Amino acid sequence: MVAAVGIFINGITAWLFASGRKADLNIRGANLHMAADAAVSAGVVIAGLVILLTGWTWLDAATSLVISAVIIWGTWGLLRDSMAMSMSAVPPHIDPGAVRSYLEKCVGVAQVHDLHVWPMSTTEVALTCHMVIPAGQPGDAYLIDVAHRLREDFGIHHATMQVETDSNSPCALAPDHVV
Questions:
Q1: Sign, Cα dihedral of 159, 164, 170, 172
Q2: For residue 112, which of 63, 98, 105, 123 sits 20 to 30 Å off, Cα-Cα?
Q3: Average pLDDT of the segment spanning 82-100
Q4: What CA–CA distance (Å, rounded) separates 84 from 92?
Q5: Do the Cβ atoms of 21 and 28 come closer than 8 Å?
Q6: How far is CA 59 from each of CA 3, 54, 73, rounded to the nearest angstrom?
Q7: Longest dimension (CA), the chain
Q8: pTM score, whole prediction
Q9: Minimal CA–CA distance to 100: which of 124, 128, 138?
């Protein structure tokens, strides 16, 4: 009876977390945890009923193994994404090539280099880059607009852009890479 109540409570809780699981790694983890608890409770109820009716006590161990395999398979992506985040990898929903292309097409930009995109948390992404603008610093309104477009179009919440006027500066001559 307790396991049957667990199916209901954990199932409802998992359902409540389901809507935010794509946007936040923490919510995805909570959703998977609650769904796994509901699955464990369901396994206990089903195995208990079958054992009660048939006497097949081996079913308890088999059910545990199946539930463990389902949990491992279901959480593998969570492990992969949390490892990528801890290594400051470019978040999977951001295409650094598209970000670079957008920045290079901004008015007055001759070159973009030292572009770095990384997760600051499970919901916020940061960017730093050097933008070569030969005409000079275009002003705060320009940079605010670029930062706004990065947020709206790419989901980048914190953008720091260094403006350079000389494409032959030591920074501009360094090998370019995206991290």
A1: positive
A2: 123
A3: 84
A4: 9
A5: yes
A6: 16, 10, 21
A7: 83
A8: 0.62
A9: 128
